[in-house]
Amino acid sequence: MSLVKTIKMLCDERKVTFAEVEREIAISNGQIRRWDNASPKSETLSKVADYFHVSTDFLLGRTDQRYLDLKNTTESDADKKLHEIISGLNDQEKEFLITTLDNTLQLAKSLAKK
């Protein structure tokens, strides 16, 4: 699957448009469509990957694995990836993430006691 088609699939899943993604990651309007004929800069590709919380290898079709495999990473690698993910979120998304993580941790602790 091409880069643009992969991004389109991710947009459809998240119910956003190319224009919304472009605005959110601060790239020019219509930029994603131009990647059918030209390659993006690695920095821009990383921004798109961070926005969708997928790897750049997934975007490029080099792997079917969407997410970072934390099994073979160091704590520092995991910290960097979490920072990248969080830095790509707006304030509302960050608040939602924190609430979700807090609820998940409380549930895990509750289940562990049983």
In summary, what is this structure?
The protein has helices spanning 3-14, 18-24, 31-34, 42-52, 56-59, 75-87, 91-113. Helix content is 65%, strand content 0%.
Features:
mainly alpha; single chain; 2 domains; 434 Repressor (Amino-terminal Domain)
Encode the helix/strand succession as letters: HHHHHHH
Q: Domains counted in the coordinates: how many? A: 2
Give the structural class.
Answer: mainly alpha
Estimate what percentage of residues fall within beta strands: under 5%
- Assigned CATH superfamily of the largest domain: lambda repressor-like DNA-binding domains
**Topology-level CATH name of the largest domain:** 434 Repressor (Amino-terminal Domain)
Shape: globular
What does this protein look like?
This protein has 114 residues and is mainly alpha-helical. The chain has two domains: 3-67, 434 Repressor (Amino-terminal Domain) (Orthogonal Bundle); 71-113. The protein has helices spanning 3-14, 18-24, 31-34, 42-52, 56-59, 75-87, 91-113. The protein is globular. The termini are far apart.
Blueprint (SSEs and pairs):
Elements: H1 3-14, H2 18-24, H3 31-34, H4 42-52, H5 56-59, H6 75-87, H7 91-113
